[in-house]
Amino acid sequence: MSLSHLKEKIKSGTRLTREDGLDLYRSHDLLALGRMASHVAHKKNGDRVHFVQNMHINPTNICVNRCKFCAFSRSKGEAGAYEMTIEDILVKARSAEQGVRELHIVSGLHPDLPFSWYLDMLRSLKKEFPRIHLKAFTAVEIDYLAKLSGMTLRDTLLALREAGLGSLPGGGAEIFNPGVRTTLCAEKISGDRWLEVMEIAHGIGLKSNATMLYGHIETIEDRVDHLLRLRELQDRTGGFQAFIPLSFHPRNTEIKKSSYTTGFDDLKTLAVSRLLLDNFDHIKAYWVMLGEKITQVSLSFGVDDIDGTVVEERITKMAGGTTDGSMTRDELVNLIIQAGKIPVERDTVYHTVRTWA
Amino acid sequence: MGIKNILQSVSQGERIDAEEGLRLLREADLLTLGELAGSVRKRLHPDRMVTFIVDRNINYTNICVNKCRFCAFYREANSPDAYVLTREEIFRKIEETIALGGTQILMQGGVHPDLGIEYFEDLFSSIKSRFSIQIHSLSPSEITYVARKAKIGISEALERLKNAGLDSIPGGGAEILVDRVREQVSPNKIRWREWMDVMKAAHHLGMPTTATMMFGSLETREELVQHLTRVRDLQDETRGFTAFIPWTYQPGNTELGGRSATAVEYLKVLALSRIMLDNVMNIQASWVTQGAKIAQVALEFGANDFGSTMIEENVVAAAGVTFRMTRQEIVNIIQDAGYTAGQRDTRYNILSVVT
C-alpha cells in the first residue's frame, strides 16, 4: 500500500477520511507513518515533549463491573480486594514528592460507598493540598456516581467540581463498537454514554482526555471508527486535551489472547491517532503500558506527551505490565533529551512549568 | 556543509568514511537514519526476507580468567555458584536442541584456566560423532587463550579445532574494538588486534564468523565508529563475516554499573551499522537486549535477521534482563511487520520459508 496520496493530504493539512485511516493501518511502511505523524506533531508542538509530575491513586479495586479484559478488579470479599479510607488516601498523597502537581484518581465502581464519600474525598484532598490538581473519575465512574447521587450527569459533575474536581481522565472508553464492547465489558456503559458524559463535562468547562484500548479482539475498522467518533465530539466541544491509546495487557484477564501488542502496532496506532485526530493538541504515550523503550521511540511517531512520574499505578501491573511503577523526573527528562526532543514539564491543563532548553 | 551530501552518498550506494558516519550519528534524526539504513538493506536484501536460526547457547562454564567489569555472568573458580558442565549435560542440551528443530549450538565460556585445546578437540569430535549439528563456538578470547596455553599459533589452534569439528566462530568479545575502551571495561581480555587476528585467521581457513559490538558503556561516538570501520576494513580483505550484531551494554549486577543505552540510541547505532558496513550482508536485531518490540522495530532500521531463538541464554540474563521468545513468536513478529520469515542455518542458507 503506497501512502503517497496521503502524504500530500497531510502536507496540505487536509482532514483524513475513514478510508485514509484504514490505508494507514494497512501499510507496513512504519517510517513513512512516522514521518507524516512527526510532521503534524511538529506543527502543533514543535520539538516539545510534555510530562507531568503526578501520582496515581487507585482507592479501590472492588468493582461492580467485571470487565473481561481487566486484571485489576475484584468483587467485594474476594481475595485480593482492597479499599482505602479517605485517611489512607490522604496518607498516600502526603507521600508524594515535592513537585507533584497532579493526582490521578481512578477506581473500581464500589458497591457501597455513598456519593457523599466521593465529595468528602475531593474536599479533604483539596483542603490539605489546595495546589494539587485533582484529575479523577473516568466517564464510567461519573455515570455510576450520577446513579448514586440521583442527580443528572450535569448536576453530578457540577457537585464534583464544586468539591474540587479539576478534570477527567480518559479511561473507560475501551472500544466504542457495541459488539466488541459487549464481549469485553458487558456491564460497562455504552460508547454512546461515555461520549455523552464527556460532552456534558466539556460543556461545564471540565477538560478531559480520551483513550482507546487496542490489541484485543477489535479490528482496525473498530479502531478507526473509535477515533472518528472522538474527532466528531472534539469538533463540537474542544474539551479533549490528549488522546492516549492503551495497549491491551493479556495476563490475568479473561480475554483469550496470549500475546502483547507488537512494537509495530504500538507505533502505528500512535501515528495513526496523530494523523486522524487533527483537532487534538496532544497524543500521549503511556509509558507504564508501552515500556520506556517504545515510549522513547514513539517521540518520532507523533507523540508529544509521555504522561508522568506515575508513582505506584496498580492497574497495568496486575495485567502483567513489566515496567517499574514509577520514573523520576530526571529519568523522564533524560529519555526525552536522548531522543533529541525538548522536555517540558507541564501541569494538568498544559501550562508550562519548566522547559529544559 | 550540512549532512545532505552524506545522505545523498548513501542513497546512491556510495561508501561513507568514519567522519561522515560520525556526523550521521550526531546530526541525523532517528527517522532519517532508519530511511537510509532501509535503503541499504533493500539494496542487499530486495526480497523482504527476515531470517532467524533455531539454536541454543551452551555456556560450558562461568569460571573466567578475564573478569570483565561489564560482565554479570562470570564467577571465580572457588565461588559457590561456579560450574563446569559435564559432557553428559552438554550432550543432553544438544539432544533437546535437535528435538526443537535446532541446527546450531553456540558454546562459549568463561575462559576457564584449566581447559586446554585438547579438551575442546575432544568435546567437538565427540559431539560430531553423535549429532548432526553446527558447532558455532568459542569466541576469539577463548581461541587465543587455548592457543597460548598450548604454545601454538592462532592458525594452528584454529586448524586443530576445525579438524575436530568446529564449524564457525561467534563474534563475541569484540566489545568496542578500541584499546582505550578495552583497558577500562575488560582489562584482562585480548586487545582489538588480537581479536581481529583470530577472525582473520579463521576467515583464511574458510571458517565464517560473525562480529559483534557492545556499545553504551564507556566508549565515545568516535570510538564506536572506529569499531565499525575496523570491522569493515577486515571484511574488505577476507569477506569472512556473515553478520554484524550490535547490542547494548547491560549494567545490572556488573562492576561497571551505570546506565544502558536508550532505545533511540540503539536504533540509531543499528542503522549506522547497516549504512557503514556495506560489505557485511546481514545485520542482526538483538531481541535479547532490546525485547521483542524494539527488535521488531529494528527491522525498519536496517536489521534483516532476528538472530536466534536462544532456547537457552545465560549471559544477558545474569545482568537481570530476561526477554524470552519462542520460534512462533519470532515468526509472528516478522510477519506482523510485513516480512517473510525464513529459518536459516549458520551460513545464512534458508532452510525453510515459514508460511
Account of the 3D structure:
The complex is a heterodimer of chains A (357) and B (355). By secondary structure, chain A is of the alpha/beta class. Chain A has a single domain, classed as Aldolase class I (TIM Barrel, Alpha-Beta Barrel). Chain A contains 13 helices and 11 strands. In chain A, the strands form 3 sheets. In chain A, strands 9-1-10-11 form a 4-stranded mixed beta sheet, covered by helices on one side. A 4-stranded parallel beta sheet of chain A has the order 5-6-7-8. In chain A, α5 links the parallel β3 and β4. In chain A, α3 crosses α11 (263-276) and α4 runs parallel beside α5. Chain A is globular, with a radius of gyration of 19 Å. The mean pLDDT of chain A is 93. Helix content of chain B is 45%, strand content 14%. In chain B, α2 (18-27) packs across α10 (221-238). The longest helix of chain B is centred in the middle third of the chain and has 18 residues, at 221-238. Chain B is globular. At the A-B interface, α3, α11, α12 and α13 of A face α3, α11, α12 and α14 of B.
Count the strands of chain A? 11
User: How are the strands of the biggest sheet of chain A laid out side by side?
Assistant: 9-1-10-11
| CATH class bucket of chain A | Alpha Beta
Text of the CATH class of chain B: Alpha Beta
> What value does the average pLDDT of chain A take?
93
Largest interface: A-B, 27 and 26 residues
Low-confidence segments of chain A, given as residue ranges, are: none
CATH homologous superfamily assignment of chain B = Aldolase class I
